Amino acid sequence: MSNKTKKIDEKKTKKDPKKEARKLKIVSAKDARKHRHAAKNAARKANEAAQKEARKAKEAAENEARKAKEAAENEAQKAKAAAKKEARKAKFVAQNAANKAKQDHKTHVRHARKTKAKAGRASKKERVIHTRVSQSLERELRESAAQLGVSVSNLVRNALLNTFGLVEGLVVDGTKVAHSARGETLPEVPAVVAAPAVATAPAVVIGWQAIVLNMNALCARCNAILPKGKEAFVGVLQGNGTKPIRCAQCVKAG
């Protein structure tokens, strides 16, 4: 081989440092771009993955919140329905109690009315008592009844009722009732003393004087019993005659 050929081969095999440096710089810039691009891709993928995970977490949280809200609404509806049911039950029980009380009251009122009606019917069932009196006693009873403006039966009945109301266990016969109606005092039974309403003598009552009774008496006008120790009024007469005795109500009535 010639020297010329050797020199050419040496030139070919000998590298230029500048070119080599320039090549290395280009390669390094390419590698840096690749690395930057790869880093950007990795960062973008990581960001997308993070966003995806965040969306999933948000959706999961929203689902859980929605489920919790629905569960709370369901529980509230159940509680409301239970409260309404209890309210209806309580209202039904209260209505039943009120109806029962009303029915009991009606029953009690009906029973009271029946009892009152029975008592009224029993009280209205009067009995007739027959007695024998002399002709003079009958005449005296009729005259006293005419003076008092009542019937003979009412005179005798009122005298008997009032006598039983004042004297315990005392039963007077027809003769004693007549004496009481005439205003005569009985020595054996000083329980009732009555005065006639109008004297047969032409005497006029000019006034009434208040007295305290020392014994039982009958009002000459209404035939009411005037008990012993109570206030009554005796008539002040102008002329001769038996002084009549009246109760306060009859004196006021004139």
How would you explain this protein's 3D organization?
Mean pLDDT is about 75; it is low at about 165-175 and about 185-200. The strands form two sheets. This protein has a three-stranded mixed β-sheet. It has a three-stranded antiparallel β-sheet with strand order 2-5-6. Helix 3 crosses helix 4, helix 3 (about 135-150) crosses helix 5 and helix 4 (about 150-165) crosses helix 5 (about 175-180). It is mainly alpha-helical. The chain contains six helices and six strands, in the order αααααββββββα. It has a domain at about 135-254.
Write a brief caption for the model.
With 254 residues, this protein is mainly alpha-helical. Helices cover 64% and strands 10% of the residues. α3 (135-148) crosses α4 (152-166).
What is the average per-residue confidence, as pLDDT, rounded to a whole number?
Answer: 77
Considering DSSP H and I runs of 4 or more, what fraction of the residues is helical? 55-70%
The biggest beta sheet reads: 3 strands, mixed
Into which percentage range does the β-strand content fall?
5-15%
Strand order of the largest sheet: 1-3-4
Straight-line N-to-C gap: 190 Å
The gyration radius over C-alpha positions equals: 66 Å
Query: Quick one: how many beta strands?
Result: 6
Uncertain parts? 166-175, 186-201
Order of secondary-structure elements: HHHHHEEEEEEH
Number of helices: 6
Q: Indicate the structural class.
A: mainly alpha
What assembly state would you assign to the polypeptide chains in this entry? Answer: single chain
User: Which of globular, elongated, flat, extended, rod-shaped describes the shape?
Assistant: rod-shaped
